[in-house]
Amino acid sequence: MYNEALKQLKIGNEYYVTHNCNPAVFDNAKRRELTEHGQKPYAIIVTCGDSRVPAEHLFSAGLGDLFVIRNAGNVISPIDIGSAEYAAEHLGTSLLVVLGHTHCGAVAATLEGDGESYIRSITDEIKEAIQEEKDPRKCEWLNAKNSVKKLLQSPILSHLKETNKLNILAGMYDIESGRVVFED
Ligand SMILES: [Zn+2]
Predict the structure, then answer these.
(1) C-alpha 73 to ligand 1 mean position (Å)
(2) Which of 108, 110, 102 is nearest to 141 (CA)?
């Protein structure tokens, strides 16, 4: 089932880069249907708050399709883990993607040694992920993969993964080409 979900994300992204529009339905009937029957999103996406990363659009997804968790730098706090647990366990979503992106400002700020006030809580997380790596593209991948690792610290999520009810992987969105690639 998570293979189907991953396939759907890949097809959705292919449509996005070739057609430059979102074909999903956003209308009263769809809203009514989801209100009456509840949501059953096919994927959980943990991604950056960057305005150039519109999660639904880049996967040609619509209402009720994706459970999206966002913060600057797609880092993982207990609140993000709790959100992912909710979607995976209670909504039965079987695919979780941590979607990093190219030219991520949070990663750049970490490399530049910036990070004041509460931003520090983000750059500290990213620093832990990238260690001494300096290449921004490599750092973005390291950060996304580290977030996957952090999510798996949750006994609920790791159990769902071990029992093949959940697949968790990292992906990368190229903000220029619009393409998403997933780790193997
Ligand atoms: Zn970012």
Answers:
(1) 5
(2) 102
C-alpha 97/C-alpha 38 separation (Å) is 22
For residue 34, the CA-to-ligand 1 centroid distance in Å is 30
Which residues are CB-neighbours of 54 under 8 A, at least 6 positions away?
Answer: none
Is the model more confident about 8 or about 116?
8
pTM: 0.96
Contact between 104 and 51 under an 8 Å Cβ cutoff? The reply is no
For 112-156, how does the pLDDT look when each residue is reduced to its tens digit (9 = 90+)? 997 779 999 999 999 999 999 999 999 999 999 999 999 999 999
Domains along the sequence of the chain with CATH:
2-182 (3.40.1050.10)
In three-state secondary structure terms, 85 is: helix
Instruction: Name the amino acid, one letter, at 124.
Output: D
